[in-house]
Amino acid sequence: MRRHVLWSTVAAVAAMTVLGTTAANAEGRGDIRVTKAVTNNGKNVIVGISRTVTFPVKVTVKDDSGVKQLYRLDAGNATSTAGAPVETVATSCKKLSATTSECTATVHLVPAYLPDYNSERNANDAAGGWCAYGNVRANDGDYWIFDCVAPFKLKRAATLTTAATGPGPLTGGKQVKVTGTLSRADWEALKYRGYGGQSVRLQFRKAGASAYTTVKTVKTTSSGRLSATVTASGPGSWRWFYPGTSTTAQVASAGAAVAFEPATMHAPKVPYAMHAATKG
Q1: How much of the chain is helix, strand and coil, in % rounded to 5?
Q2: Is the separation of the CB atoms in 240 and 160 below 8 Å?
Q3: Are 243 and 197 in contact (CB under 8 A)?
Q4: How far is CA 247 from its chain centroid?
Q5: pLDDT in tens, 205-215
Q6: Using CA atoms, how far apart are residues 105 and 88, in angstroms rounded to an integer?
Q7: Is the pLDDT of residue 8 over 50?
């Protein structure tokens, strides 16, 4: 049976039950507050189709009596009821001063649980803006239920391939065909599928250079395929770069190098002259 979870409701109800509060004062009691929060050290959380993803949520908490604990922390979609099977597996607090502590929650997300998690929504709808919520407690009994802190993007992982072919060894001015495929994680089917209609940058890096430069932008076909023909100007490597979206991760392919042979200088041909035989 699929589960349908409204995470913010669950967190709030659990917090009120444990702390003996009512909806009227569910925001908390006393002066304890979350003053700073960050998820995954400020980076997006990228989820594929098989590997369990682990990420930290850190909250800085302040109270005049000192911080007792991070009592509960959950993570969920900030704008919809699209849920995902996240689980907080550990919490700890580090005392920074007499009044302030940094508390860390370690969160797991298991892709294998995504397809059967929400009966009312496609599993891929879980991608997008997320945040953390829960409650913290102070030594003097103060508590605070925070609704949405440490905002982050939960994104579908993407893959990108590159192949470069041409008449080899190449010389300056000859054509190189660069192909590839852009795919992204389908959480409903737990497979990677071609991602169509996306603008992907074809980039070149000269041999010895440290950075790639964009040469042109190409749109993927409905099956995620890419193809471009470019002129070889010197040795180096080609790659595709996809900047990502609010729900799909940025990805760059590995570079594909082609053999390059500078044009060879040949001595001009001398016309051959026929001469009459000389009598001896």
Answers
A1: 10, 50, 40
A2: yes
A3: no
A4: 8
A5: 998 899 999 99
A6: 6
A7: no
Q: 51 Cβ partners below 8 Å, 6+ apart? A: 111
DSSP letter string over 175-244? EEEEEEEEEEEETTTTEEEE--S-EEEEEEEETT-SS-EEEEEEE--TT-EEEEEEE--SSEEEEEEE--
Tell me which residue of 60, 66, 72, 57 sits closest to 30, measured CA to CA: 66
Q: How many CA atoms lie within 13 A of 231 on its CB side?
A: 3
Rounded to 5 degrees, φ, ψ at 161 are -115, 160
Three-class secondary structure of residue 16 per DSSP: helix
At a CB cut-off of 8 Å and minimum separation 6, what does 157 contact?
A: 46, 47, 48, 49, 184, 185, 249, 251
Residue pLDDT, tens place only, 66-86:
999 999 998 988 876 667 889
Residue with tokens 């009459």: 276
Distance between CA 268 and CA 144 in Å, rounded?
87
Q: In the chain, which residue ranges form alpha helices assigned H by DSSP?
A: 7-19
Alpha-carbon distance 168 to 261, whole Å? Answer: 8
For 57, list phi and psi in degrees, rounded to 5. -120, 120
The chain-wide mean pLDDT, for the chain, equals: 83
Compute the residue count for the chain.
280
Highest averaged pLDDT of the listed ranges 145-154, 180-189, 264-273: 180-189
Q: What is the Cα–Cα distance from 185 to 242, expressed in whole angstroms?
A: 15
In tens, the pLDDT along 120-130 reads 789 999 999 99
- What's the rounded mean pLDDT across residues 250-278? 60
Task: Output 257 or 138, whichever has higher pLDDT.
Answer: 138
